[in-house]
Amino acid sequence: MTVPFFFTWVNEELFEFPKMLLTYGFAVLIAGFWAGRMILERKPLVRRTVFDWPILFFVISQLLSTIFSIHPATSIMGYYTRFHGGLLSTFTYTLLFYALVSNFSKPALKRLWLTIFIAALGVTIYAIPEHFGHSPSCLLITKEFSVSCWVQDVKSRVFATFGQPNWLAAYTITLIPLGISLFAQTKKRWQQIIFSLTTITLFITLLFTQSRSGLIGFGASMIVFGAGLVWLQRQHKKKKSFFTKSLGLIGAIGVTLILVGSNFTPSISKIVKSNQPSPAPSQPAPVAVVNRLETGGTDSGEIRKIVWQGAINIWKRYPLLGSGVETFAYSYYQDRTLAHNLVSEWDFLYNKAHNELLNFLATTGIVGLGSYLLLLGWFGVISLRAILNLKNKINLKDRAILLSLLSGIIALSLSSFLGFSTVVVSILLFTSLGSTAILTASERVSPEAKTSSPSTAQIIQLTILTILVLFMTSKIFNVWKADREFAAGKSYINAGYANEGLEKLQAAIKLRPKEALFHDQLANAYSKVAVALEQQGQSDSSTQFEKAALEESALTLQLNPRHLNFYKSRTRILITLAAIDPSLLIQARETLVEAIKLAPTDAKLMYNLGLIEISSDQVETGIKTLEKTVEMKPNYEAARVALGKQYESQQQASLALEQYQYIYDHITQDNQEINQKITKLK
Q1: 620 and 488: one domain?
Q2: Which of 138, 451, 515, 671 minimizes the number of CB atoms within 10 Å of its CB?
Q3: What pTM, to 2 d.p., does this model score?
Q4: How many other β-carbons are positioned within 10 Å of the β-carbon of residue 303?
């Protein structure tokens, strides 16, 4: 399992994007070998499973939602740059599921799990040093074994190669129950060491992520797993060794919790310190920033409630099939509540509902959510039936594995209730489904394949298959390469190297001509070059870049007319170019009007519209727009300052004073300019 380790620092998105592309690459290779085996054996090798119908319903729901999506291109590929969650990723996970059940036997499953846990041990070895200020990622990127390469406080909340602590936590809690079962039933000492060590270090990693959703999911999974073990022990009283080992490892996890502590339970060292006399008062120690929202911003729970309400509003607008797979970033802003203007993250882009179930409901409707719940429910029923039915031929070890897989998916589902799934945990989900299908299936012995030299027809088929695999692999590589060129182009532009940046952006577009984000960035770069050339007196060249900027910006909206950020970007481009051609302010105003149709509660759009109207000598209209802006977001300091200045220019001192006084009373008392204006107007 190399996917958990894969991340790059030369792409626009460092973690999920490379992992998704690597998964696509592996899927192509696996499908190629699988198809090659079918060619050589001259028969289809696709095994039927107990999950066929639920998976079929789920895939059909995603397909229908994509067909009727508000932006099908996004629904197919997924939201750029993560891609996970798009229709293509669903097809990929389904392919991997059937490749697993059609080519693996029970003995082979054990080798697969061993591989997964060896990889997991590597992840924990990567993550745990971050808590002590040493990130292997920084060693790779900057050649310094520190955490200086990260903006995030990785010492407080580790994330290894996953990019986000909650994503790493979801990975750990999905595997811990399975690790306990595998440790208890293996007889080889070296495997016992791997499973026990990995399970303990996975738990330590979970604690170091400080993920509340992860700990809640872990707690629930341990309740289910513990209750299941008690029931199994009563049915298999002679298997004392198995239960003794399981309880021993669970006990070791408990001791680890006491020693390390968690968000909900203090460590033993903190308990001891709390009972000691307090030292004399001194300078307060600096507090590490665990979560920005916990140090002055709006509580993350309050923000989630607002976003969840928006998700429900989307579902009401698109009840059956949702707005389209992975289109939450587009549809949310049309149904975003005014309350979102009052939180600290009011101007952030939300491309997920931060609740897996509500995300499915909003983007795929009741059909998509229903099929997803059916798949999980079916998994639960199949697992419980196999665990509890003593009349079947499933032995204790397999029952324990099924119990651990079920417990892991329960943990993952609860964690995703406060977040969303990622590439690695989705692979684990479908691996758990495949493992359950294999463990609960009746033993079927396939006849030995006849070994003979391949015929000419088979050689031709294998050659065509090889060419197809190489072609698809090159396509996947080109997606990665295009993103690398795009990221490099942005870096060059931001650093002031316009020529190099334009060259990289153009190379990215050549590789992926229909990616709207690339054209948007190129349009932005062209606009800046146009203004710079105009200031240098090179009017002819400036005109060419101005025209190119407008064409690229128009093409961006043609490729994706649903993405709010592209309207904002076009507005900035038009305002920038207005330094050359003031008439472009009219187009900027028209663009903002169109953007407000997509996001009617976005106070920043309304604010910028007011400024443009005032700049276009539509002062009265602009004042009304600014008044509407502060109604939408009363604590919008910039909008109140702008409105106050307009009142002053209109000789309406009392109204201007009202705006400035509101800023002083309710927003900030540190704005010296406003304080002076208040004194003057009074």
Answers
A1: yes
A2: 451
A3: 0.92
A4: 21
